[in-house]
Amino acid sequence: MNLSKIPQIKHIAGNNFFLLSGPCAIEGEDMALRIAETIVGITDKLEIPYVFKGSFKKANRSRVDSFTGIGDEKALKILRKVSETFGVPTVTDIHEVSDAALAAEYVDVLQIPAFLVRQTDLVVAAAETGKVVNLKKGQFMSPESMKHAAGKVTESGNEQVMITDRGTMFGYQDLIVDFRGIPVMRQYAPVVLDVTHSLQQPNQASGVTGGRPELIGTMARAGIAAGVDGIFIETHFDPANAKSDGANMLPLDQLEGLLTRLTAIRKTVNTF
């Protein structure tokens, strides 16, 4: 994948990591613009290539009464407004074949959720839009098996693909990131580390996913040191009241300090 192929991407000449970041889900226009404005300010200051992330709907919830979204087109229009307001690209995840063409009208990167990355029809539909495709590694998949997922995109005539590691299931309620997989998957495509989802604690008896946000800094630093190309961080100004994945999100007011430290580590890594 060529990072310059993502529309409106900035700061690509500095050899820094790139960032996919924003709230788990689009809860409304004001919150999306508020979060985007803060992150854009930070990434411009630190010269980090940035893509705003927000799910236009959440289809993979634990319980039937969990928040799933504010309406597909309403949320997608908010993502478009973020892009137009701040001049940044956007990414959202899709869950059905019909989502691909719909979301491609509004965003720049289509993300395939980890649970669905083996769904050939979905991956091919995303590839055929011509958009950049971000493949989340299945929690049940080896790094080596992601070669075939990436191949579904490239064999569909789309070379713009990246892979995001979000941990591997370790028992019923925990995830582990095996950093040996980073160089393996970089043979197939640029690799992103999804820091916040890697710290989830899924399958809780309550039906609400838990998390270990106090380890976000540790995980992110390890990822940069291991040579990942990008970092994925979900963030919110009020994680405790976020409508989705609040238990593992980074408080927005902690983001600048973390990204400043990661940028310093990246500069050191670049010297080797």
Automatic annotation (TrEMBL):
GO aspect biological process, one term: lipopolysaccharide biosynthetic process
GO MF, any single term: 3-deoxy-8-phosphooctulonate synthase activity
Stored SUPFAM superfamilies: Aldolase
Entry similarity comment: Belongs to the KdsA family.
Organism of provenance: Robiginitalea biformata (strain ATCC BAA-864 / DSM 15991 / KCTC 12146 / HTCC2501)
Protein name: 3-deoxy-8-phosphooctulonate synthase
One Pfam assignment: DAHP_synth_1
Catalytic activity: D-arabinose 5-phosphate + phosphoenolpyruvate + H2O = 3-deoxy-alpha-D-manno-2-octulosonate-8-phosphate + phosphate
Highest rank taxon of the organism: Bacteria
GO CC aspect terms: cytoplasm
Enzyme Commission number: 2.5.1.55
Pathway(s) annotated for this protein in UniProt: Carbohydrate biosynthesis; 3-deoxy-D-manno-octulosonate biosynthesis; 3-deoxy-D-manno-octulosonate from D-ribulose 5-phosphate: step 2/3; Bacterial outer membrane biogenesis; lipopolysaccharide biosynthesis
Gene3D superfamilies: Aldolase class I
Keyword line: Cytoplasm, Transferase
Keyword Transcription regulation: no
Residue span, DAHP synthetase I/KDSA domain: 11-265
Compartmental location: Cytoplasm
InterPro entries tied to this protein: Aldolase_TIM (IPR013785), DAHP1/KDSA (IPR006218), KDO8P_synthase (IPR006269)
Enzyme class of the recorded protein, top EC level: transferase
Keyword Nucleus on entry: no
Main location: cytoplasm
